[in-house]
Amino acid sequence: NLTNRLSGVIKTLRGEARLTETNIQEALREVRMALLEADVALPVIKEFIARVKEKAVGQEVIGSLTPGQALVGVVHQELIALMGGQKADINLATVPPAVILMAGLQGAGKTTSSGKLAKWLMEQKKKKVLLVSCDIYRPAAIQQLELLARQTGAEFFPVQAGQQPKEIAAAALNFARRHFHDVMIVDTAGRLAIDEAMMAEISELEALLKPIETLFVVDAMQGQDAVNTAKAFSEALPLTGVVLTKLDGDARGGAALSVLHVTGKPIKFAGVAEKLTGLEPFHPDRMASRILGMGDVLGLIEEAQRGVDQQEAEKLAKKMKSGKSFDLNDFKMQFEQMRNMGGMGALMDKLPAQLSQAAQNVKVDDKVIGRTEGIINSMTPQERLKPEILKASRKRRIAAGAGVTVQEVNRLLAQFEQAQKMMKMMNKGGMTKMLRSMKG
Ligand code: GDP
Ligand code: MG
């Protein structure tokens, strides 16, 4: 991946005082290969390499930076620029209801994203949201959105039997006006491939609803195909932005890097988990860091604030900063937070590559989260603060209390020690030191 290739780049450039066309050639070849592997569209790669070259050549390597690091810095900046630089906010500045039209192929995640967006708008922007389904073709599609409405607490517009998409849209708009909805999210039908009937239908809906946002929903795992579909949609519909879904899957980042370049429209939201809280505003800088393997640490913090009791999170942060010892209560809280954040899978994705590897070695999976909490619950407060007092008899008592074996208690204590080590390293030398120690 890009991270590995770039560490190679850092080595080849050791000892150079200035970046020149010759000494960065090898490095740029690595970058090009990495982008190809990430499934980035070819024209995008060409332009990207040209820009990095232009910015890098002649640059003096300042201060404590190595030339390789300087080049990686340029690559990082250009990756951010490629995704639009700034975060692109959702636009709701219109006479209510602000209509958001969701477009895209079948399975892209339109319906799910409609529900998630409703939740996000209600929670983060305090909006009154109406969910409307114009997908009359798949029998379960309307019920799917209705269920999401119930789960999020958004209002759902009831569709009458036999109503056509245009009739539904017009009636819903009327309803939203009369009931003072701030936002109306309109889910639409998708096909397996782009076809004229679908494009005609959504164009008609667009003309009728005059949405302030027409969001193209696309599955990140589709790579180059995603980009081609985005291009076709952007030519047929006045899109205002993109929702890139399933970034939690094994997407290689190519779609995220190519979409803006190909469609001219920024990614406004990213789908990062199947559950309803799994939608986030898209941050080009964080995505760039993630592609470079630095991990989305900021995103993790933001998600933690959303998913867990903020006070608890702050307590933990303070404790970590003050360098106080990390005890089993903190360990248990981490497990609770993990569950709130969508389990290990969602969490791993956000960690820097090396740290995530280390966490994998600790072998925690979602099933053991509940058991772990059970074991810790069976300990006395004193034992949680000082796990070193746990000798055989105490362990037997705890195992019996939690309905597990002593081996399981031991395993948990070993995991706790690993986590404690990681926390100590984070306290002492920060990220860099920890990552270095893990490589070695
Ligand atoms: P639609 O046909 O475009 O409406 O697609 P759906 O909203 O029905 O989503 C298709 C499938 O993708 C469903 O199983 C969703 O749960 C799943 N999905 C959508 N967005 C995400 C995401 O961001 N992450 C994950 N893991 N799954 C998603
Ligand atoms: Mg759908």
UniProtKB/TrEMBL annotation:
SMART domains: AAA, SRP54, SRP54_N. It is found in: Cytoplasm. It holds the Pfam family SRP54_N. Residues 1-83 form the Signal recognition particle SRP54 helical bundle domain. The keyword Cytoplasm applies. Keywords: Cytoplasm, GTP-binding, Hydrolase, Nucleotide-binding, Ribonucleoprotein, RNA-binding, Signal recognition particle. HAMAP family: SRP54 (MF_00306). GTP binds at residues 104-111, 187-191, 245-248. Belongs to the GTP-binding SRP family. SRP54 subfamily. This is Signal recognition particle protein. Composed of three domains: the N-terminal N domain, which is responsible for interactions with the ribosome, the central G domain, which binds GTP, and the C-terminal M domain, which binds the RNA and the signal sequence of the RNC. It catalyses: GTP + H2O = GDP + phosphate + H(+). Its main location: cytoplasm. Residues 96-244 form the AAA+ ATPase domain. Part of the signal recognition particle protein translocation system, which is composed of SRP and FtsY. SRP is a ribonucleoprotein composed of Ffh and a 4.5S RNA molecule. CDD domains: SRP_G. One of its GO terms (biological process) is SRP-dependent cotranslational protein targeting to membrane. GO terms for cellular component: signal recognition particle. One of its GO terms (molecular function) is 7S RNA binding. Transmembrane segments: none annotated. Involved in targeting and insertion of nascent membrane proteins into the cytoplasmic membrane. Binds to the hydrophobic signal sequence of the ribosome-nascent chain (RNC) as it emerges from the ribosomes. The SRP-RNC complex is then targeted to the cytoplasmic membrane where it interacts with the SRP receptor FtsY. Interaction with FtsY leads to the transfer of the RNC complex to the Sec translocase for insertion into the membrane, the hydrolysis of GTP by both Ffh and FtsY, and the dissociation of the SRP-FtsY complex into the individual components. Its EC number is 3.6.5.4. The keyword Transmembrane helix does not apply.
